[in-house]
Write a structure and sequence with these properties.
The chain is mainly α and 383 residues long. The chain has two domains: 133 residues, Alpha/alpha barrel (Glycosyltransferase); 194 residues, Glycosyltransferase, CATH 1.50.10.10. The protein has a three-stranded antiparallel beta sheet with strand order 3-4-5. A three-stranded antiparallel beta sheet has the order 12-13-14. The chain has a two-stranded antiparallel ribbon with strand order 1-2. Helix 4 packs antiparallel against helix 5 and helix 6 packs antiparallel against helix 7.
């Protein structure tokens, strides 16, 4: 099968061969096209995400000791160097683990909680479980002011709410289901889903906005008009996972409908592919990289469309899947050196031929390949 073969014969071997730092611990994630290291700094997002990936594959696909060992290698580095004295996760470390960037970004905590939770499930490591739970509770305490003293915003002038945190808390809570009290987990998931579907969803356009005022309205500014198609699509397969667990057909149908609307809005009709950022009113986005075509956006679309078709049988999911699949598989995989390119220009040509960096690591590609493989496997078996 396409997805399983790409995962196990191409993508995972690339990271196994090139990323493990045997001398200092953790992983090299800044890898060029051939897998050579071009920067040794260690960013918490891709470090934690790689732990999660290998632990997840160990838990859900095959009990390969090599995968568990690679996950342990990252966990030990993060456990030793990743947090400040209060348990907040730094954003960046040097190769040896000394902090470079303060813990201003709560998503470091989110990915660390995911990583330690999945590793605890794989290994039975009680301390890893405690770290995961402590980090999760810290996230919930910080969610109303995630950047704290590191925020540059002047309070009160434009009190925007940001979509990314409630979006990821849905997925994080489901990931940590084996560690959480069911009632507390449902409360968090329900609260975040309510925010997503009532505040951030513009019902007239059926699009998710990245920033809204507390009443859900859109200020006429760069942030207030910003659409990130990839975020909107990814969040909807998180919602589909909730719908599947609860047998909530209405939520599943709504999530699919939003994915389809987002693809209609975000697809580049001239050159193909999904735009990175767009302005809801068609004005110039602030982000100069707005028209790039990114790996993770297209992978999240494939996951959402596969899950959406499995849940609802909506024919447009299949039509869009074939369109996105054709675009992505013709352009992102690197048949010569393995793994996927991350950054294409608007015309679909490789813009940066790196395989990893500050943001791209061992996460979106293997996660999407695994999830699509499992969905097709279940559909083929009739489950």
């Amino acid at each position: 099968m396409l997805y399983r073969d790409a995962l196990l014969r191409d993508v995972i071997p690339f990271w196994e061969r090139h990323s493990v730092d045997e001398e200092c611990g953790g992983y090299f994630t800044c890898l060029d096209r051939q897998g050579s290291v071009y920067d040794t700094d260690k960013f918490i997002w891709p470090q934690a995400r790689q732990v999660w990936t290998f632990a997840m594959l160990y838990n859900r696909l095959e009990k390969k000791e090599q995968w568990l060992e690679i996950a342990r290698h990252g966990v030990e580095f993060l456990r030793k160097y990743g947090m400040d004295a209060e348990g907040n996760w730094y954003f960046a470390l040097n190769r040896e683990g000394k902090p470079l960037v303060q813990p201003y970004n709560i998503f470091s905590d989110c990915f660390a909680a995911m990583a330690f939770s999945q590793y605890a499930l794989a290994s039975g490591d009680d301390d890893a479980e405690k770290i995961a739970l402590k980090t999760y509770r810290n996230i919930l305490q910080r969610r109303d002011n995630p950047k704290g003293k590191y925020s540059k915003v002047v309070p009160g002038t434009r009190p925007l709410k940001t979509f990314a945190l409630p979006m990821i808390l849905v997925n994080l809570s489901l990931e940590m289901e084996h560690l959480l009290n069911r009632g507390d987990m449902d409360t968090t998931v329900d609260g975040c889903l309510n925010e997503v579907m009532t505040l951030f969803l513009d019902r007239d356009r059926n699009l998710i906005f990245e920033h809204v005022l507390p009443d859900g309205s859109h200020p006429d500014c760069f942030d207030g008009r910003l659409i990130n198609p990839g975020h909107g699509i990814e969040s909807m397969w998180f919602a589909m996972d909730v719908a599947h667990r609860r047998n909530d057909k209405k939520l599943a149908a709504k999530a699919v409908d939003i994915v389809l609307s987002t693809l209609d809005f975000g697809w580049d009709s001239e050159y193909g592919g999904i735009f990175y950022f767009l302005d809801a009113e068609g004005k110039a986005p602030r982000q100069l990289e707005w028209d790039q075509k990114l790996w993770w956006v297209h992978l999240e679309a494939l996951v959402a469309l596969t899950k959406g078709y499995a849940l609802t049988g909506h024919s447009k999911c299949l039509q869009w899947y074939e369109k996105v699949q054709r675009y992505a598989w013709q352009r992102f995989p690197d048949p010569e050196f393995g793994e996927w390119f991350g950054y294409l220009n608007r015309r679909g040509k490789v813009l940066l031929d790196i395989k990893g960096g500050m943001w791209k690591g061992c996460f979106h590609v293997p996660r999407a390949l695994y999830l699509c493989y499992k969905e097709f496997q279940q559909m083929d078996s009739g489950k």
